[in-house]
Design goal:
globular, 91 residues, mainly alpha, 45% helix, single chain
Length: 91
C-alpha cells in the first residue's frame, strides 16, 4: 500500500537533505512520485545530470526510499546493498 501520507522527503527513512536535493535534481517534487521509479535509472540519471559518478551506495538509498513509498517496511539503506550488488553483478 502506497504511503500517500508522506509529504516530505525527509520523512522517508534514510533520506536526508542531500538525497532530498538529489530527488529534486531528478525532477521528483513529492515523495509519492517515487512509487514505480527505477532506482538504478534514477542513479544513472543523477550521474548524468551532475556529470559526476556518485557512490553506488546512493542506489541503496534510492531502493530503500522507493520500496518504502511503495509500502515496504522501513529498513536501513545498507540492507539493500546485496540486492544492488546482485543486480549489478558486483561482488
Amino acid at each position: 500500500m502506497q504511503r500517500i501520507e508522506i509529504k516530505k522527503f525527509q520523512d522517508i527513512p534514510n533520506v536526508g537533505k542531500k538525497i532530498e536535493k538529489d530527488f529534486i535534481l531528478l525532477g521528483i517534487k513529492e515523495p509519492i512520485e517515487l512509487v514505480g521509479k527505477d532506482p538504478y535509472q534514477m542513479y544513472r540519471d543523477l550521474c548524468s545530470i551532475t556529470n559526476n559518478r556518485h557512490d553506488p551506495c546512493v542506489i541503496d538509498v534510492f531502493i530503500s526510499a522507493v520500496k518504502y513509498m511503495e509500502g515496504g517496511p522501513p529498513k536501513k539503506w545498507w540492507e539493500f546493498t546485496n540486492e544492488r550488488k546482485k543486480k549489478m553483478d558486483v561482488n
